Each structure stands twice: as C-alpha cells, then as structure tokens.
Amino acid sequence: MSNRLKDNINSKYFEAANALTSKKARRRIVAYVESYDDIYFWRTVLSEFESDKRYFEVMLPSKAKLSRGKKSVLMNFLKGEPLGKDMIACVDADYDYLMAGATPTSKSIIESPYVFHTYVYAIENFQCYAPSLHNVCVAVALNDHRIFDFRDYFRQFSEAIFPLFVWSVMVYRNGNYPKFTITDFNRIADPGGFNINIPAPSIAKVKRKVFTKINELQRLYPDAKEEYLATKESVKALGVTPQTTYLYIQGHHLFDTVVSPMLTKVCNQLRQERQNEISQAKAPSTQKRNEMTCYENSLQDIKVMLKKNNGYMTSEQFRRIQEDIRGYLGE
Q1: CA-to-CA distance for 91 and 110, rounded, in angstroms?
Q2: Nearest Cα to 218, choosing from 184, 178, 167, 158?
Q3: How confident is residue 12, by pLDDT bands cut at 50, 70 and 90?
Q4: DSSP string of 78-107, one letter each residue
Q5: In this structure, is the dihedral angle defined by the CA atoms of residues 58, 62, 64 and 68, taken in order, positive or negative?
C-alpha cells in the first residue's frame, strides 16, 4: 500500500476490514490522537470501553509523514466526513471548545459524533488536577504528610485569574486576540516566586497583574461590558467556574510554569523531612546509611509521575468524556 493511500485511509476502510474478519473476532476501532503523550491518556480513557466484542487502537494520524498535532488529526480526517463508527479522533479541547462553534475547527469538535475532546484545555490540565496532586507528591517523595493544600491554592488561583480569562476567551471569539494573546495571559497567570509555607503573596501578585491588565483592556474596549458579561455566562455554561479556571488555561503553561515548580518545592521539603527522620533515628550508623540509600533509590522524578497521574478520573470533566464515548457506542 502506498504512503499516500495510507494517509488517506478513512473509516470505510476500517469498516470493510472489520467486515472481512470472523464474526467471533473483536471489532477494531482506530483512535487518532495528537502526540505521543496523548496515546497513554486516551488509552486510559478508552480501556474501560473494551470488551470481548471490540477494542481500540490508539495511534498518531500518519506513520509515513510522522505528522502530529490537532491540525494533522482533524484536517486530514474531517474532510469529506471520513471518520465513522470504526475510526475516531481524540484531541485536546484547547480554546476550540470555548469558541462554541465560532470557528470551523470548533464546530467540528463540538458537532462531530466521531471527534472526542478533553473538555479541559489539554491532557496536561488533567494531569495537574488539584485534588490528585498530593498523591503525586506521595509517589515522588514517599511521604504522606500533607504539608500543602493544593485544592485551596488552585481555588484561589482560579478565582484570581477568572475575570481576565473571560477577557481572553472574548477576544478570541471576536477576533481581537492579537491585542491580548494566550501568551500575554500566561505571563500574567504566572505566580512567580512561590513559598509553600506562605502561598498568599503569590496569589496577591497574580491578582495585581490581573487588575492592571483588566484596566488596560477596559480602556482599549470601553463599550465591551455587555459582550464581556455575555461571554462570562457562556463560559460558565460550558463548565468553567471561578474555582476551576486553572483547568482551562494553556496546559503546557500550567504544567511547566505553575505546577511543576510548586511540586518540586513541596517534594523537596517532604524528602528532607523523611531524610531527617532517618538521620535522627535511634539506630546504628550502618543501618541508617542503608536505610537512606534504600529511600533515595526509591525516589521518583516529578514530571514523570505527574505525566502518569490519573487522579483526574474522578473529575466532572473526565466523566463528560466517558459519557460522550458511551453515546458513540450506543450505550
């Protein structure tokens, strides 16, 4: 089979292939995803729906060209409705979900029964799901002492950025995003120096930056009040709340700039705490050295464990993905 033909395979090809297999064989459903990291995430999503009658194969859109990304997944496979019951696309929602059908890509994501999206901005937002972050710290530092309240911090962080987030969505909907890009928003939504023992100043810093930017945008768009309020109600209807805004900002920014540095500081303190316990234990020095070596050899990398984190499976947004898959399967 030529590379061009491989790249143009659509759902009818897989339907025909399934029709040729034994009736006792399991139906194969191909799920195209954006990147290598997405393969593990969507495998986690789809595994629940496998049975003795069907299974999913999660893959990138083109082995021949090594193409990746949402554009490769959607643009190649939405032309001429090539998706179908045996071939689906699984992508990050990005801002396309919040665009509410205002762009062709947004319309495709929302309306196609064979395209599934994350509802949150990207899989990184799920990996940074606040109620699960303590468990990530335990996996990394092997210390179950709760020294930081992730839920409360990200509630406050979300409430601080929510008003500006509404502005961000609004300018992307009306085409004025060059005046206030996602990169601009990320710069403001960066807590900067963060102290796990005194986190309030980082929230206060974000609030000040948000306040300053909103004043600037209000001067730039003095007649935007009604549009802003309508956008605010619209994003709330889509599931965004002032307490969960962090799930809808750019995933890489949340993962790399906000959460990873925070977890590094929390885990370093937990490790130090455990190492102090071993050092101060009433035991022979040789035994303590062996214990320290055993502990340090068992420690895990923060970003690796964060990428493997699946504590998001209890979230409302994840359940919405599951409901969409059930609908597609007729369950």
Answers
A1: 11
A2: 167
A3: low
A4: HTTS--BTTEEEEE--TTTTTTTTSSHHHH
A5: negative
> Which of 325, 259, 319, 264 minimizes the C-alpha distance to 124?
259
Three-state DSSP at 115 gives strand
Residues 149, 196: Cα–Cα separation, whole Å: 9
Between the alpha carbon of residue 267 and those of residues 124, 135, 143, 261, 328, the distances in Å are: 19, 11, 9, 10, 41
Q: Which two tokens stand for residue 286?
A: 């040789």
pLDDT in tens, 76-125: 555 544 667 898 999 999 999 999 888 888 888 888 889 999 999 999 99
Specify the DSSP class assigned to residue 113: T
Mean pLDDT, all residues of the chain: 89
CA dihedral 155, 251, 43, 49 (to 10 degrees): 50
Q: Is the dihedral of CA 299, 132, 152, 38 positive or negative?
A: positive
**Cβ(127)–Cβ(256) under 8 Å?**
no
Determine the pLDDT at residue 193.
Answer: 81
Amino acid present at 163: P
Sign, CA torsion 15/1/90/43: positive
What are the tens digits of pLDDT across the range 277-327?
Answer: 999 989 899 998 999 999 999 999 999 999 999 999 999 999 999 999 999
pTM score of the predicted model: 0.87
Distance CA(251)–CA(94), nearest Å, equals 8
**Contacts of 100 by beta carbon, 8 Å cutoff, 6+ apart:** 106, 110, 173, 234, 238
**48 neighbors 322 (Cβ within 8 angstroms):** yes
Q: What is the dihedral of CA 317, 320, 322, 323, to 10 degrees?
A: 170
Residue-wise over 23-34: b if at least 16 C-beta within 10 A, else e? eeeebebbbbbb
Residue 219 has a CB neighbour count (10 Å cut-off) of 8
